Prior knowledge:
Elements (H helix, E strand, L loop, with lengths): L2 E3 L23 E10 L10 E2 L13 E6 L17 E8 L7 H18 L9 E12 L20 E3 L9 H16 L4
Parallel strand pairs: 1-7
Antiparallel strand pairs: 2-5, 2-6, 3-4, 4-5
This protein binds flavin-adenine dinucleotide.
Amino acid sequence: MARLLPTGIAxxxxxxxxxxxxxxxxxxxxxxxxxxxxxxxxxPGSAIWLEGGAAGEGREAPVVxxxxxxxxxxxxxxxxxxxxxxxxxxxxAVGEGAELDDETLVRRAESDVRAMRAAGRFGAMPALxxxxxxxxxxAQFAQPPGARARRTPASLGMPGLWRxxxxxxxxxLEGAARGGAxxxxxxxxxxx
Length: 192
Ligand SMILES: Cc1cc2nc3c(=O)[nH]c(=O)nc-3n(C[C@H](O)[C@H](O)[C@H](O)COP(=O)(O)OP(=O)(O)OC[C@H]3O[C@@H](n4cnc5c(N)ncnc54)[C@H](O)[C@@H]3O)c2cc1C
């Protein structure tokens, strides 16, 4: 029977296997998400807001890469008693920004979310109350320019052992699905 390996088994990868391209955990990116409660939707609409700004007069370079008001999609995500308002926003930093300490990250994330709302011309920002910081180290394996050439094959060169992984394509659910399809195709083709 063929065995499929989850990401990370075949290399000295990062905890949880998230750094497991052929390059191991080197260059892997972590992410950190700051959750803010608010009485109104801080960034309105069922949309992922991308931070496209840059450092400018009186403004540090943004650390948030994207943010979404979760309660615009799922109102039940409001914090338990909704004491800080019926909306919950998630603002995520990736890479260097995700390594900032909690206090700095919360301050910078709030500043970025304010700038994003201002850019959307939605008026004054409602009160934002930080309620949690969640960190996922090694959230993405390294994908610098040229990473495509280091995509992993399904075959591990051992009879009956295969790899079905995002590392076959890209650090995404699409990459994971493609990795699974490639492994299935290799098994059906009887390749080693
Ligand atoms: C915070 C976060 C948000 C994300 N958001 C999105 C998104 O919005 N859209 C998107 O497309 N993708 C997103 N992704 C990426 C997506 O989750 C991954 O690309 C996908 O899950 C990879 O699937 P996989 O099967 O290759 O690896 P994984 O899902 O990582 O599965 C590998 C499994 O192997 C196990 N494992 C590792 N080592 C061992 C071992 N030695 N022995 C036994 N088991 C082991 C692990 O515990 C894990 O269960 C996100 C990832 C993170 C971390």
